[in-house]
Give the backbone structure.
Amino acid sequence: MAQPAQVVPDSEAAEPEMISGGHLVAKALRAEGVDVIFTLCGGHIIDIYDGCVDEGIEVVDVRHEQVAAHAADGYARITGKPGCAVVTAGPGTTDAVTGVANALRAESPMLLIGGQGALSQHKMGSLQDLPHVDMMAPITKFAATVPHTERVADLVSMAFRECFNGAPGPSFLEIPRDILDGRVPLAKARVPETGRYRASTRSVGDPADIERLADLIAHSEKPCVLLGSQVWTTRGSDDAIDFVRTLNIPAFMNGSGRGTLPPGDPHHLQLARRYAFQNADLIIIVGTPFDFRMGYGKRLSASATVVQIDLDYRTVGKNRDVDLGIVGDAGAVLAAVTQATSGRTSTGAANRKAWLEELRGVEDAAYQKRLPRQLSDASPIDPYRLVHEINEFLTEDSIYIGDGGDIVTFSGQVVQPKSPGHWMDPGPLGTLGVGVPFVMAAKYARPDKEVVALFGDGAFSLTGWDFETLVRFNLPFVGVVGNNSSMNQIRYGQIAKYGEGRGRVGNTLGDVRYSEFAKMLGGYGEEVRDPQDIGPALRRARESGKPSLINVWVDPEVYAPGTMNQTMYK
């Protein structure tokens, strides 16, 4: 006789697996491939740390939230994966605003997660309560509050998806404390799977436009191309190299596009850009807006055919009319154009030898004119000599980071990274203070690479205390401070506008021995006043295996041409 089935009391039923909001954040970060968060601790966000420990995500804690945000930006640039910064509510989030704004203008995909008071205390005046989403909305591609613990991972993945909508950029999520600390059945929470919640963004634009550009190139005698930051953002360097070499087109590079072609490549040009833009019959602008760096498009010849390729539809044709606009992935578009020319009787490549020789002559003349200053033995040290020594010091594995005003403007003319993705600067927001956090991100993401950073003394002062974080996490780099005890780029503008008598108002700094600062925090440091000592000091910093600062005293009465030509002073 069959025995009757036993009824298990509800109290003895299997308990569902529960998970907290902080652990859901960590699962969503892991699904995106994030292996590190940059953070400054706060009571609102500690459950995220607990989740990161379980998911194997490194927690790099810094001394200021601006550094965390800049480091997340830098991590995205180096790896191609979105960076992530986690900060507490109120002042923690407001401290990170500058880093988020910089990522927006630089088109860098990063997620800032900010804490918030409990939803149960909404509008009651909880600790550090501020309208974070309202503040972040204008400087992000996506900003939202997570309303329920079950939605945490879902909204993290949504934020990442928005980071890559068109041109990349930052997103912001505010997660209230009770949402992070709350626990829900794992089965009820949507945790998106890796690779299944974002589509490819490698669009080639309208095929008819690809054919039209191929035709324009085939009939051009004097083309040139500017390879901008989106070439690196889209990891299109190989496609850009193939495009330039196959079609025999002289190339200039800016932003993160620097290093696409190595120095010495016959198509690599730097100093002849103004001449090329005035004399070319076809100008192709790739991944660079017509902003202040381009004279809002006015620096391009009015008679040239102008083509603009960009990830963002809103950028194409902004500030200047174009003859052809293509919205798409820089690498994919260039590869498609190269392919489109392959079946033609002539691509025009053979006819451009004279044009390349013409530009090379302009380039060489400009280089020879400046070379005496690059080799100058003057004391105080000519900034051109300093950046020349740095350029000579770089290897194919050196990631170069520029953080400053006038001194970094000098370096933009001289320093040439030797590989793609080996140049980092703030981008068009012109933010000072990115150097130390960019070093942190670059050295963490690529420990196999040497990192070399040039700071203005004013720029280093903004985030320099996180030099200690580099020591604490054993992230060695070669740091150089071009020290003129001034905010010299602004000083020049004040002298130009108000005269020498008021040239020192609000821009003069103390004579700080930054080498001693480095040594105090456990790093390596040297003072340099003789230009002959720059190279040996750089080599000793490399050999030290520590975070380092070589404090080089440069002439405060010398200004970069780019500083003197800035339109804000006209």
